[in-house]
Amino acid sequence: MNDGSNKMSTFHLLNFGCRASQADGAALKRQLLDAGLAEAPRADQSQIAVLNTCTVTSTADAEVRQIIRRIHRSNPQCRILVTGCYAQRAPQEIAKLPGVAWVVGNSHKHVIAEVLAGEKELGVRSQESEGGIQNSEFRILNSECQGASPESQVVSPESRVPSPEPRATVLVGKITEEFHFAPVFPDDSTRPTLKVQDGCDARCSFCIIPEVRGPSRSLAPEKVVAQVRELERKGYKEVILSGINLGSYGKDLERRITFLGLLGRVLEESSIPRLRISSIEPMDVSRELIGLVAREPRLAQHFHVPLQSGCDRILRAMNRRYWASHYAERILAIRDQIPGCGIGADVMVGFPGETEEDHQTSLRFIESLPFTYLHVFPYSARPGTPAAARTDQVNGRILHTRGQEIRAAMAKKRQAFLEAQIGRTLSAVTLEEEEAGARVALTTNYLKLLLPESDVAPNTLLDVQVGRLHDGLLYGYAAAP
Fold first, then answer.
1. What angle (nearest 5°) sits at the alpha carbon of residue 286, between those of residues 282 and 288?
2. Can you tell me the distance from the alpha carbon of 351 to that of 385, in angstroms, rounded to the nearest whole number?
3. Closest Cα to residue 393, out of 405, 376, 378?
4. Rounded Cα gap, residues 50 and 8, in angstroms
5. CA–CA dist 399, 348 (Å, integer)
6. What structural domains and CATH numbers belong to the chain?
7. CA dist., res. 158 & res. 134, Å (int)
8. CA–CA separation, 215 vs 251, rounded Å?
9. Cβ(212)–Cβ(244) below 8 Å
10. Cis (ω within 30 of 0) for the bond into 183?
11. Where are the alpha helices (DSSP H) in 44-111?
12. What is the DSSP string of 225-244?
């Protein structure tokens, strides 16, 4: 791949979705670079475009399709590789799009570099290297079999199948219990994400993630510690610990350990200045975890706790594993022990069967809790999930209206929280980003703060004094040491 005459020597990677997906994308980039490909700054300047996708909503799927078409229009010679969760869920749908040369599911994401580097002949299983292309279904699509069923396109591992004028090559199989994409490759100059857990064993009725991410599996604690130490040696001040379901961390390991136990080991065995928990389910926000965040200055004072609905009837229909009262108990415990903590949640509106009364119950519940931000999104039917099969789907206009009502309620809470920060001194890490000519910092409680006339370099951990609030933005300055 280092040969300058090779037509597949440059790539451009686009990431979509959650932090775990972002971490996968960063590791994938490292593998492509190590395989001898060169990164291009834009897809229209690249010979290969790699899209690492999300499929949590139909909007996410549509965005990927739109970008594929845009890339193909602007750069018809570019060969497009689509991977990630959308590729795992609907490979045939993606393979039909113009410009797509490969569709690689999460099952094979870890061998994309081998595929592009030509180290393995497609259609043949190699047993020579651990973690290579082996022991999985291998599907090839071409212009002659577009109408065939998925079963008819499964190629046996030992087969060599000619594929004249291929439309797309598809690699999708069962996701194993192996943990892929470690070590981490920091693709963020200031706040790298370390994926310590992948997959999910829960069965929320609206969610496709267990199907496209596989079973819950964990990165061994000694490997987590080693990775954090490596990032510390590279000079990073904040590391984000991410996963699909962090609370299930360690349950699959031979020597059982909880996520709380992992945090304790990382804090004890490394000197990283700050750890941030990306997202954790309400059942796993224990008093012990809250207490650790409250007393440990190296842990960011920030919890993101998915809610989905504040109505018990809807929570049951969603197959969520808590009542609204249990959720509220944990959120109020966070506020009591960490008064200035950043507290966020995901909220879904318009789940099938949600009545106006259910929505109002959820809205009142949200108004009663000390959230500092919310991610509000409409229900999106995912094929194959129980919720998608329901006949009581909610009208799209109603979804929009309910979402707007919750966002309006949250805007008032957000404004009050921002105003309460004025005059406070907060720990923050400076980012590569600049806005209005000012360096941007992210505070421990997950607030963006602008530092006008500051020459402080990115990736600096410092105390900042919050001075004023203007047009929804906080401004401040470095506090005196």
1. 155
2. 13
3. 378
4. 12
5. 9
6. 10-171 (3.40.50.12160), 193-420 (3.80.30.20), 425-478 (2.40.50)
7. 10
8. 11
9. no
10. yes
11. 58-74, 85-89, 91-95
12. HHHHHHHHHTT-SEEEEE-S
Say if CB 218 and CB 253 are below 8 A apart. yes
**Nearest alpha-carbon partner for 244 in 210, 274, 220, 221:** 210
The pLDDT tens digits of the residues spanning 106-115 come to 999 988 988 8
Name the residue among 319, 26, 396, 355 with its Cα closest to residue 188: 26
Q: What is the pLDDT of residues 189-210, one digit of tens each?
A: 789 999 999 999 999 999 999 9
Q: What angle separates helix 324-337 from helix 287-295, to the nearest 10 degrees?
A: 20
**Taking Cα atoms as reference points, which of 231, 250, 115 lies closest to residue 183?**
231
Nearest residue to 366 (alpha-carbon basis) of 405, 416, 314, 320: 405
Q: Give pLDDT, residue 403.
A: 97
Inter-axis angle of helices 396-421 and 356-367, nearest 10:
10
Q: Are strands 448-451 and 461-470 parallel, antiparallel or unpaired?
A: unpaired
pLDDT at 165 exceeding the cut of 50:
no
Pairing between β-strand 79-84 and β-strand 48-53 as defined by DSSP bridges: parallel
Whole-angstrom distance between the N-terminal and C-terminal Cα of the chain?
A: 51
